[in-house]
User: Which sequence fits this backbone?
């Protein structure tokens, strides 16, 4: 997957990601996603009793480079993340992080998206 990033002043660059994960449903339990691998799952901090990822203000999980948005972060970021309305803030914030990582030479990023 290639993500096109547009910066201020008309600059642009592309960022290639190995995976983009779109999760749907009513219950989030990231620890059950076996395709993430046991090392990643064991490194994920979750909100007790929910299986939802604990994320920072930048939506990055406890696993560096793994960003989680949507209903999967509602217990951490608030109920607005369950709705389309919350997607603008999440998308803008994660895009800024990816642009910064790309500019700093960290070309690989994992992005997990919830819907």
Assistant:
């Amino acid at each position: 997957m290639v993500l096109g990033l547009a910066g201020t002043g008309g600059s642009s660059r592309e960022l290639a990601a190995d995976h983009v994960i779109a999760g749907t449903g009513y219950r989030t339990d990231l620890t059950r996603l076996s395709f993430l691998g046991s090392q990643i799952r064991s490194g994920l901090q979750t909100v007790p009793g929910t299986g939802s990822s604990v994320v920072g203000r930048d939506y990055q999980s406890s696993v560096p480079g793994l960003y989680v948005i949507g209903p999967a972060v509602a217990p951490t970021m608030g109920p607005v993340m369950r709705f389309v309305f919350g997607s603008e803030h999440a998308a803008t914030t994660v895009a800024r992080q990816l642009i910064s990582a790309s500019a700093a030479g960290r070309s690989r990023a994992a992005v997990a998206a919830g819907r």
Observations:
- The helical segments are 38-43, 74-77, 87-103.
- The CA atoms of residues 44 and 56 lie 12 Å apart.
